[in-house]
Design brief:
This protein is mainly beta and 283 residues long. The chain has two helices and 21 strands.
Amino acid sequence: MKKFQYIYLTALLSGLLFSSCEKGMETVEQESVVYLTQSGISTHTVLLGNSVYQLGVYHAGINQTNDKLNVTLGIDDAAGADYISANAGYEILPSTYYSLPESIVMIGSEEERGMFDIQLKNIDESYVDKKYFLPISIKSVDKDVTISETSDVAILQFTRFRNVYEAKYKAYGQAVLSGTTDTDKVKIDEVVTSTSTDAGTIKVKGAVTGLNLLLKVQNGQVQITGATGSEAFNVANTSGKTSTYVGEFSEVYQCNTGTYTLYYTYTASGKQMDASVELKFWL
């Protein structure tokens, strides 16, 4: 009987404590504030042609009564002038390259984030090594909401173009001595990054250290050559085999999510090697 009473009292006290905590949380308030998570300086590439860059606007606070928020953003001329004075050679992105369709971002009552769209346009292959940036700040917000004093300005640097194929890839495959199936085998299993060189070509790491490849997509087929600095590897497309690319553009990732299937030869330590590698889009 005593044991039963002990269990009952323990459960009762636990329930009261939990109820008390719940009621306590209902009375806690945290200041309602809007901010940019990407505040400060950040560097970005720009998709060839026209695209949209989205800047996240966040709302934080506990037990606030706001139904929804309207946050106004725009170019911050003062922040731009300060950045230019401290960074020689930089200038605000010319208006021929961008537009701001909407100045107001609406954050719903059940949401913590809204997106501020920057329309980027007229980007071609001449857009390289640029010192252009956009200074975007939160200008105002309705209702009783505070603008963060430390996370309200974003300096977005847009330095070069990229094509739809530029992304991270998981490389998996092997290279073997030409004419064999497993002699001097080199296993390939790594994540590699890529860089655009023109509208259809990316540069990516090859089978061994120091080897960089150029992969050019034409009508679903891929031509493989050695990048500048990799001439000694004598890279060539494997005779009798066709390298391919399959993929499509993703609005979410603003690039293609596809797969390269590659066959090429290269020379290392005086030996000709046959490489067969799959490059698959990787987050």
